[in-house]
Amino acid sequence: MWDDKESVKTLSEGVLENDKNKGLKYCPCRITTGDKEKDLNLVCPCNFKIQKTWKEYGECWCGLFVRRK
């Protein structure tokens, strides 16, 4: 999905901002529920290998991590 440095920078900053504001490095593309137990599934890097986007496109949910070709 993302193929430029600015997008990677924006996503990385989102992860760090979530760490600062919410206490964990949540994926910036996912919405936390406030239930810490459920939200642990949203910590970046998520278990992207089980996600549909990884299986179909070789990318994690937001495209920050991609499979090497």
Summary, kept brief:
It contains 3 helices and no strands. With 69 residues, it is mainly alpha-helical.
List the defining traits of the structure above.
single chain; 69 residues; mainly alpha; 41% helix; 0% strand; flat
Overall pLDDT metric: 85
Query: What Rg, in angstroms, do the CA atoms define?
Result: 12 Å
Uncertain stretches:
none
Shape: flat
What is the count of helical runs? 3
What is the count of β-strands? 0
Question: Which structural class fits the helix and strand makeup?
Answer: mainly alpha
Helical percent range? 40-55%
Tell me the strand percentage band: under 5%
Give the SSE string: HHH
Biggest pleated-sheet summary: none
Total count of domains: 1
In whole angstroms, the N-to-C terminal distance is 14 Å
